[in-house]
Specification:
about 700 residues; alpha+beta; Rossmann fold; Methylamine Dehydrogenase, Chain H; four-stranded parallel sheet; 12 helices; about 20% helix; metal ion binding; metal-binding; transport
Length: about 700
């Protein structure tokens, strides 16, 4: 329940070109109401107060969510739709905080300009938007873990040990049951919608899709260029499909045949596919001899049929695809519709039997990493034409490149350690004891490894756990209990987060939970963020209503000065609280930005939203124990929900119940009816209880 451990103090800088365009692009004319004033809508009382301090009397303003009301659970009325229909400008927090606003805006037919105030701020992560599909060493059900909650949220029966893989966008987990000749797919429930100027990921319930394909010993899975190729060893056939196959029964797949059954591979390249070429003379030899390139009409475009004897292992990096061979690494390069190869042969002194049979690559790099003996790897550089051995301290079971940059090699060795290695120099930068030591033998479970962003996930079959590792800090951030003997895993969800993307919960009726997505939207609790929001309001209003530009500048400057004084007040007051006592326990994590700015730890039973009204007995008991262990002095209810939950926590943890804090909405009247009054009141209440 430690929120800062949950956040990992993770920050992301989110700059959306859409908002910049809104702020910078001049208008020919601004719509004006009958009394000559702009009609402005603010979603919440906090937003409204910031806007009022900039616009003064130049415009009319209406607030949608009333004071002392919860924006998380707000239900718009038909009159709210009418207000939006007449509005010229809408100021909102964004980041899915007003999860109902998109639907209301669309239903109203409004043409108002929407200004999202959180989009230009440095944001704290409120969740990973990741899920893990984990398979067992035996035929136990595959399990889906929600990384944010740490809970197993899906179990999927299998009839044979399963190999899970990630689909191209990360939405689906593909389950290959080789011994059952079956391929199925799980919709992980994290869907990314394209909103034109930005991408919106959101969560919903996971489900086993209707997709079901029967193969002949399906083994090798390759996802590349938005496509999926699955090679069936039992008949030498390749299934070429896409995520559309998991969404619709109407989507077809292409089938490519090779000369005979063999342990082969296929690599999709968009409008072409690379297929392994089997040995047709020695029918007992299972490994291919080379490759050929076909177009999607099944016509052979290029053939390199004898250039990779004993082919096993492939990967793509940048413009290249590499294949491991008995005596070399074969590099395939594409230039338009022309394909060529280059052979990088092993050095004469290479020990007998040492070869590349497993490869990893990264789209941002032009090199590969391959296995090379029991205690070694090799860096493969297609441009320089070099093979550079990398020594490891002992035998290993799995290796990957870090997903974020591709500059680091992540390796799991048999002593249970995870190592981070500089891919350019081969130097071990950091090591971490992560999982139970194991032996490398056939039919003995051993750890699996997956990387995503700056994280690694490693299965621990002996402990029945999955371990999460922060690859930058090289420490264990969480352990997920899955029971059984977890071995292989695939990461589903938002695999990478680009600038210009942001996440939110759409609030569909079937949603499993109602979090805001990857970023915490409660940005206003940091006074410095409030100043940035005021500047955004000022700039937007000057752009929309240039005639009153001087007023907006003057009002904003005066208010910014007041906020600077407020920030000084907050720091002076908080200095009275011993650092060890700066632990803020509230119903939901609406004070993370305040905590980050002013040096607090935050705890809460509900996460970043009040929509999850029941924290569950287990989670509540865990929180109470943590409060006791940390020596927390007081817990605080807030003004947007019932105080009963915090009263219960205070009673069970035997701590004070502090004053009710003003959280996501201002009060209807009194000193806390303004943003500055709210902050001063909250800080005073916190200091009184914790000093």
């Amino acid at each position: 329940m430690n929120t800062h451990a949950f956040l990992g103090r993770c920050k992301a800088l989110l700059m959306l070109s859409f908002v910049l365009a809104l702020l910078l692009a001049p208008l020919a004319s601004a719509p004006i109401s009958a009394n000559g004033k702009l009609k402005i809508v603010a979603t919440t009382s906090i937003v409204a107060d910031l806007v009022k301090n900039v616009i003064g009397e130049t415009a009319e303003i209406v607030t949608l969510v009333p004071p002392d009301s919860d924006a998380h659970t707000f239900e718009p009325s038909p009159s709210d739709s009418a207000v939006l229909a007449e509005a010229d400008v809408i100021f909102e927090i964004g980041l899915g905080f007003e999860s109902w606003l998109d639907r209301l805006y669309e239903a109203s037919g409004s043409k108002a300009r929407r200004i999202r105030l959180a989009n230009n701020l440095q944001l704290l992560a409120s969740g990973t938007m990741l899920r893990l599909l984990v398979s067992d060493f035996e035929s136990a059900p595959s399990k889906l873990i929600d990384v944010d909650s740490g809970k197993v949220i899906g179990r999927y029966e299998v009839s044979a040990p399963t190999y899970p893989y990630t689909s191209p966008t990360g939405r689906f987990g593909v389950k290959i049951q080789t011994n059952a000749n079956l391929i199925t797919a799980v919709d992980g429930g994290i869907v990314i919608e394209d909103h034109g100027d930005h991408m919106h990921p959101y969560k919903r319930d996971p489900q086993l899709t209707a997709f079901r394909a029967e193969g002949r010993t399906p083994i090798h899975y390759v996802a590349h260029a938005g496509q999926i190729a699955i090679f069936n060893d039992g008949n030498g056939e390749v299934m070429l499909l896409s995520e559309r196959n998991f969404e619709s029964a109407e989507a077809g797949m292409l089938i490519f045949k090779t000369a005979r059954a063999h342990h082969g591979v296929a690599v999709p390249l968009g409008d072409h596919v690379v297929l392994s070429v089997p040995d047709t003379q020695n029918m007992d030899y299972a490994l291919p001899l080379g490759i050929q390139v076909r177009n999607l009409k099944d016509e052979v475009i290029a053939s390199f049929a004898d250039q990779c004897p004993g082919l096993h292992g492939e990967a793509s990096s940048g413009a290249f695809t590499a294949f491991g061979c008995a005596d070399r690494v074969l590099i395939l390069e594409r230039n338009g519709n022309d394909f060529s190869t280059k052979s990088l042969r092993y050095a004469p002194e290479t020990p007998s039997g040492t070869r590349v049979g497993t490869l990893v690559g990264h789209e941002k790099q032009n090199f590969f990493i391959g296995n090379f003996g029991q205690t070694g790897l090799v860096r493969i550089d297609p441009i320089a034409g070099t093979l550079t051995p990398i020594s490891l301290p002992m035998r290993y079971s799995a290796f990957q490149l870090d997903a974020e940059t591709g500059e680091k090699i992540i390796v799991v060795t048999t002593d249970g350690s995870v190592h981070r290695i500089d891919a350019m120099t081969g130097t071990i930068e950091a090591s971490l004891e992560a999982v139970t030591p194991f032996v490398f033998r056939n039919r003995v479970p051993r750890p699996g490894l997956a990387t995503v962003r700056n994280l690694a996930y490693v299965t621990d079959p002996a402990a029945g756990e999955v371990v999460e590792i922060d690859l930058e800090a090289m420490n264990i951030t969480r352990r997920f209990v899955v029971e059984g003997k977890p071995v292989r895993l695939a990461v589903l969800g938002v695999l990478e987060m680009d600038e210009g993307d942001h996440a939110h919960e759409h609030g569909h009726a079937h949603a499993h939970d109602h979090d805001h997505g990857m970023f915490d939207p409660h940005v206003w609790t940091d006074v410095i963020n409030a100043q940035a929001m005021v500047r955004a309001i000022r700039d937007a209003m000057i752009n929309i209503d240039a005639d009153n530009a001087a007023t907006y500048r003057s009002n904003a400057n005066a208010y910014l000065a007041e906020l600077s004084e407020l920030d000084r007040f907050v720091r002076e007051q908080i200095a009275q609280i011993p650092e060890a006592s700066r632990i803020l326990v509230t119903p939901h994590n609406s004070f993370n930005y305040f905590a980050e700015r002013y040096g607090f730890k935050t705890l809460s039973p509900l996460g970043v939203t009040t929509a999850n009204a029941d924290p569950g007995a287990g989670a509540l008991a865990e929180l109470i124990e943590e409060i006791k262990a940390l020596g927390v002095k007081a817990v605080f209810p807030d003004n947007t929900g019932s105080p009963r939950l915090m009263e219960l926590i205070a009673r069970e943890a035997n701590v004070k119940l502090g004053k009710t804090l003003i959280a996501d909405a201002l009060s209807a009247e009194g000193d806390t009816a303004t943003y500055i009054g709210k902050v001063r009141y909250n800080v005073t209440a916190i200091v009184e209880a914790l000093k």
